[in-house]
Design brief:
Length: 180
């Protein structure tokens, strides 16, 4: 079976940047699974995987516009130093995690403007970067009835939110995803 719209796909991958730095990799023996057409992976990667089948291996490069987008200058913000722990030395390049309206978000310290002002970058850490994937397709199959039902819930994780199932950890999106 070839990859097409509305099928389940799992794949092993290694993600590197132009510099060759490895930034992500599927755990050994645990390929990443997703439902095509549901927005669960970056669009450029999914597009390039269409038509592939189990056992296919390919190198795929994805431009920023088809991944996490270009760096958005409006996502650089000045915040007061007091919003960080008082005993912590804040330096450019530091990364923090915070809870945002859509769940966890990464905050990067871009600059220390003065003793009272820190410039943070709310762009995705991979925004503006060309991504290189080494991909091996592990599974391609039709959707189960549960997965089909999950598509109508909005997130495509396979949870049955209509029945009150709000623990989506078994569906692939994680119990803190807020999909239900």
């Amino acid at each position: 079976m070839n990859i097409k719209e509305n099928v389940f796909v799992s794949f092993d991958y290694c993600l590197t940047l132009d510099s060759g730095e490895e930034v992500d990799k599927s755990p050994e023996g645990k390929p990443l699974g997703f439902i095509t057409g549901s927005g669960q992976i970056i669009p450029g990667l999914e597009k390039e995987m269409m038509g592939m089948s189990v056992g296919d291996s390919v190198k795929i490069s994805v431009e920023p516009e088809d991944a996490y987008g270009p760096v958005n200058p409006q996502l650089f913000q000045e915040v007061k130093r007091e919003q960080f722990p008082a005993d912590m030395e804040i330096k450019p390049g530091m990364t923090f995690q915070s809870q945002g309206p859509q769940g966890p978000m990464i905050i990067n310290v871009s600059e220390i403007k003065d003793e009272n002002t820190v410039v943070i970058d709310l762009n995705h850490p991979l925004a503006g970067k060309r991504l290189h994937f080494d991909v091996n397709i592990a599974e391609v199959r039709d959707l189960t009835p549960e997965e089909l039902a999950g598509l109508s819930s909005g997130c495509g994780c396979g949870c049955d939110c209509s029945s009150g199932d709000t623990d989506c950890s078994s569906g692939g999106c994680g119990s803190e995803s807020g999909c239900c």
